[in-house]
Amino acid sequence: MNPSVRRHLFSTPVIVAALGYMVDIYDLLLFGIVRIPSLKGIGVPDAEVLDQGIRLINFQMVGLLLGGIIWGIFGDRKGRKSVLFGSILLYSIANIANGFVTDVNQYAVIRFLAGIGLAGELGAGITLVAEILPKEVRGYGTALVATVGMFGAVLAYFIAEAFDWRVAYFIGGGLGILLLIMRIGVFESGLFAKLKQTDASRGNFLLLFTNLRRFKKYMGCILIGMPTWYVVGILVILSPELGTALGIAEGVVAGKAVMFTYVGLAIGDMASGLISQWMKSRKKVVRLFILLTGLMVVLYVYAPIRSTEFLYFMCVMLGISVGYWALFVTIAAEQFGTNLRATVTTTVPNFIRGTLPMLNFFFVEAKDQWGILNAALVVGIGTIVVALGALSLLAETFHNDLDYIEP
Questions:
Q1: How much is the pLDDT for 354?
Q2: Which of 393, 402, 128, 398 lies closest to 275 in space, CA to CA?
Q3: Collapsing DSSP states into helix, strand and coil, what is residue 163?
Q4: Nearest-CA neighbor of 215 among 381, 406, 41?
Q5: For residue 188, is pLDDT > 70?
Q6: Cα–Cα–Cα angle for 138, 139, 141, rounded to 5 degrees
Q7: The domain made up of 3-391 is a member of CATH 1.20.1250.20
Q8: DSSP readout, 225-258?
Q9: Which DSSP string do the residues of 165-229 spell out, in sequence order?
Q10: How much helix, strand and coil, in percent to the nearest 5, is found in the chain?
Q11: Helix spans in 79-137 (H)
């Protein structure tokens, strides 16, 4: 690797953004890993664990949706660095509070607050990295952030295996506080500092809806990511129930499924970033990964092998296939000017996460009519079709210069 490239990639802002995303993923996915023991631990009957788990996931995702707007606007008005501080403080406190819950209603409120806090991490981190790195290595930097971040799920699994679910939440909150201290020395984006000296409108969320060109780009950025959270939120987090429907005799452990999926995601994110740099294209690589996701969804439901080992292998493959997460967030950052970039880059991944309650609704409705496996397949193929259509709305952004302002 060129020494100049290495110096840019391993600078303090990139490393701290990567570690921040790792803690973000740890806290974001910890509920999915401890869903069953935590709900049983507060007295939820076995028959209600699935429905209550979906309810709590929905609360968290709605928090992410709202938090994406709040932190995105804040990032364009006050700076990328301020979001990195504020968001991690909120979700760290919320996750410590999660360790004290005693009923489902408390759990729901705190997961909602945690969701708001978690919403700011990725968007602000990717925006900062994209703006401080030269465009020739921008894709490497965002891929590095995402790849390191995905191992937060692996860490969450092993922590949850080694400790009680309440302690796992305490550890997540503690990691966030430690990272907050590390961020003291991170510097602000030079492009944002330059923007502050102009009179341009900053963080005006409504600008995304008052211009058809911007609106189409914004919706395209959101919809291309729908398959990612369908895979994580339905196929993986609900893998114990899906495994039973597949006829797997030995119980599937949700935590293991999440861990293996995020190992795959780490591989996929690094691969998609490197391939994108090699092909000098974002769109071609995203299209390839979306099509691969469709293939993996079909194999997940219809492959003739029925064992826990094969299901975990499929989780790795599903993770690789949706490993274009950093790539589509990079696309979002590259589509818009400096005065809207944090708003877009922070809201896009959280609006995608926020589509999970809608996908869960369709899944539950279809499950009651067609069965759990057919429901998973139909919803999954639907997200693939929508994502491919949305991708056609977007222009290639690989060579875009980010030093401009939206009118």
A1: 77
A2: 398
A3: coil
A4: 406
A5: no
A6: 65
A7: yes
A8: THHHHHIIIIIITTHHHHHHHTT-SSPPPHHHHH
A9: HHHHHHHHHHHHHHHHHHGGGPPPPHHHHHHHTS----S-GGGGTSSHHHHHHHHHHHHTTHHHH
A10: 80, 0, 20
A11: 80-98, 104-118, 121-132
- pLDDT score at 185: 65
Q: pLDDT at position 2, please?
A: 64
Q: ∠ CA(14), CA(284), CA(139), 5° rounding? A: 10
Q: What is the pLDDT of residue 3?
A: 66
Q: Does residue 1 register a pLDDT over 70?
A: no
Q: Lowest mean pLDDT: which of 86-90, 301-305, 334-338?
A: 301-305
Q: How far is CA 137 from CA 58, 143, 190, 221, 401, in A?
A: 37, 10, 17, 21, 12
Q: Angle at Cα 244 formed by Cα 246 and Cα 382, nearest 5°?
A: 55
For residue 9, CA distances in Å to 5, 132, 186 come to: 6, 10, 14
Q: Which of 278, 27, 14 is nearest to 145 (CA)?
A: 14
- pLDDT, residue 114, reads 93
- The contacts of residue 32 (CB under 8 Å, 6+ apart) are 57, 232, 236, 237, 254, 255, 258
- The separation between the first and the last C-alpha atoms of the chain, rounded to the nearest angstrom, is 39
Query: Stretch 292-314: mean pLDDT, rounded?
Result: 90
Please report the pLDDT score of residue 378 as a whole number: 94
130 or 229, higher pLDDT: 229
pLDDT tens track for 142-158:
888 888 888 888 899 89
DSSP designation for 154: H
In whole angstroms, what is the distance from residue 232 CA to residue 352 CA? 12
d(CA 288, CA 279): 12
Cβ-Cβ contacts under 8 Å for 258 (sequence gap 6 or more): 29, 32, 33, 153, 156, 157, 232, 236, 237, 315
The rounded distance, in Å, linking the Cα atoms of 128 and 376 is 36
Does residue 157 sit in helix, strand or coil?
helix
**Amino acid residing at 196:** K
Name the token pair of 177: 């506080």
Spacing of C-alpha 151 from chain mean position: 13
List phi, psi (to 5°) of 69: -70, -50
In the chain, where are the structural domains located? 3-391
Give the SS3 label for residue 402.
coil
The pTM is what?
0.81
Alpha-carbon distance 60 to 356, whole Å? 10
Distance, in Å, from the CA atom of 246 to the CA atom of 236, rounded to the nearest integer, reads 14
Residue the block writes with tokens 């939120």: 233
How many C-beta atoms surround the C-beta of residue 250 within 10 A?
10
Residue 235: its pLDDT value, please?
Answer: 93
